[in-house]
UniProtKB/TrEMBL annotation:
Protein name: 1-acyl-sn-glycerol-3-phosphate acyltransferase
Assigned keywords, A-Z: Acyltransferase, Lipid biosynthesis, Lipid metabolism, Transferase
Keyword match Membrane: no
Enzyme class: transferase
Source organism: Psychrobacter phenylpyruvicus
Keyword Acyltransferase on entry: yes
Gene Ontology BP, a term: phosphatidic acid biosynthetic process
Pfam families hit by this protein: Acyltransferase
CDD domains with a match to the protein in the record: LPLAT_AGPAT-like
Pathway given in the UniProt record: Lipid metabolism
Gene: plsC
PANTHER family, per the entry: 1-ACYL-SN-GLYCEROL-3-PHOSPHATE ACYLTRANSFERASE, 1-ACYL-SN-GLYCEROL-3-PHOSPHATE ACYLTRANSFERASE-RELATED
């Protein structure tokens, strides 16, 4: 099976769905093919070179987002902090968006490595595969702390679910134990998606009962969307309990999201709807 056919099958898309969908497929084919070529160039199939991977991941993620009709904009320059990174979570699109600007490696369930097309790329991109067992967050936090101590920044979504992007849900702080154990800062960022009218976009959010295929089609068939990313001040875990760190992160991310909306949303009514 050709790379184009694999991508069409993985994303349930064909050029027969229409010109725009066909163009998206070709954009994804070019992006994924470029990812495979880059992996070969830097010998990532043998051992992912984590010291240089972030710049390749950022290029790949930015191209992936653009192929799907999303332009990524840094409201302020995103730092390269070695930290436990935390972002609000709106959609599956968050991964290429956050990956476009962050130097962090993603966490993923081990099953992702077995996925067609994207599984091999996830491996060579240095994804930190987590073996989840009966929801053992303590074990996951321990693995994350090990990665942080080894010098790898790690990204996670502390809301532990997707939302409509209008506010920050209650954060789950168990994984923040990794930052405490590794004595590394927590680097929060907040993101939002804006449509051509300057309002919060309603095609990208993937939450509630929305099916993944329907979400993909909504994004692909929709107009160009801009993803804005705002980095916030880091939090330092010294002398803080996990609950205190969680509460501080909750407050900072909520305030940060409100600031981001005030800076990029033209109609504040779309925020409160």
């Amino acid at each position: 099976m050709s790379l184009k056919s694999k991508i069409e099958d993985a994303f349930k898309l064909t050029a027969k769905n229409g010109m725009k969908r066909g163009k998206t497929v070709m954009g994804l084919v070019d992006t994924v093919a470029g990812g495979y070529r880059a992996a070969t160039k830097i010998d990532a199939w043998r051992e992912p070179p984590r010291d240089i991977l972030p710049k390749y991941i950022q290029v790949f993620c930015r191209k992936s987002a653009r192929a799907l009709g999303v332009e990524v904009v840094e409201v302020e320059p995103v730092p390269k902090t070695h930290a436990l990174w935390a972002s609000n979570h709106i959609s599956w699109m968050d991964i290429p968006v956050v990956g476009s600007v962050s130097p962090a490696f993603f966490l993923s369930k081990a099953e992702v490595a077995k996925m067609p097309v994207m599984g091999p790329l996830a491996k060579v991109a240095g994804t930190l595969f987590i073996k989840r067992g009966s929801g053992d967050a303590g074990s996951v936090a321990s693995q994350m702390a090990t990665f942080l101590k080894q010098g790898y920044s790690v990204m996670f979504f502390p809301e532990a679910t997707t939302t409509d992007g209008r506010k920050i849900k209650k954060l789950h702080g168990k994984l923040l134990q990794a930052a405490i154990d590794a004595n590394k800062p927590v680097q929060p960022i907040v993101i939002c998606y804006i449509n051509k009218e300057g309002e919060l976009d309603d095609t990208v959010p993937y939450y509630g009962g929305i099916k993944l295929k329907d979400s993909l089609m909504s994004v692909i068939d929709g107009d160009l969307v801009t993803a804005y990313v705002l980095p916030l001040q880091p939090l330092y875990p010294e002398d803080k309990t996990r609950d205190e760190l969680t509460a501080e992160l909750q407050e900072r991310m909520q305030a940060g999201l409100e600031e981001l909306h005030s800076r990029v949303v033209k109609s504040q009514q779309s925020v409160s709807e």
